[in-house]
Amino acid sequence: QVQLAESGGGLAQPGESLTLSCAASGGIRSEGIFRLYGISWYRQAPGSARELVTRVLSSGSTDYADSAKGRFTISRDQTKNTAYLQMHNLTTEDTAVYFCMIPGIAWGQGTLLVVSS
Predict the structure, then answer these.
(1) Predicted local distance difference test score (pLDDT) of residue 79
(2) Are 113 and 68 in contact (CB under 8 A)?
(3) Euclidean distance between CA atoms 23 and 47, whole angstroms
């Protein structure tokens, strides 16, 4: 069974940059899984619904939410079975629990990011 584990959250100040990681493990399917199925990053702010931040499809094409365009970048390292979410120019509105997800396969437990001065 494939498992996802996010890391890299914490406390950041407005304007700072941060990179989240999502590591896949468990079973033979974890090898190259991002290439086969793609990977998505979601976030859920307090009192709000979970929303899609960005995703990379198996084709390699990417989508970004309007709030993430120009500031966030999704990437994946097939050799490490790890995906990343680079975030720049953070604002307080980026405060949320961030989840990675492989469609139809698994969700991570989430990592909390708090952006505050």
Answers:
(1) 84
(2) no
(3) 27
